[in-house]
Amino acid sequence: xxxxxxxxxxxxxxxxxxxxxxxxxxxxxxxxxxxxxxxxxxxxxxxxxxxxxxxxxxxxxxxxxxxxxxxxxxxxxxxxxxxxxxxxxxxxxxxxxxxxxxx
Length: 103
What we know:
Elements: H1 2-13, H2 21-38, H3 45-58, E1 64-71, E2 74-81, H4 91-94, E3 98-102
Antiparallel strand pairs: 1-2, 1-3
């Protein structure tokens, strides 16, 4: 699955950004936030992040999937971000985690 995300991201990186690029990114992020109201995202961050990456790639938008860990208490989390903002989570949710892998 991670290979598929990397391949999709490489295809997107070859496309030029257009004037609707930011709107498409916001549209995908908003759709995932709406879905959170219906279903809890607890312990579902990896499949949720992969899904968001795939939806962004289908719309020609590039993002980075980040996997991070915290030590005390130990935990891990996965989120999606662009150069400008975190798309999948509020900043307070990802702040305690140190990135160990970006895709």
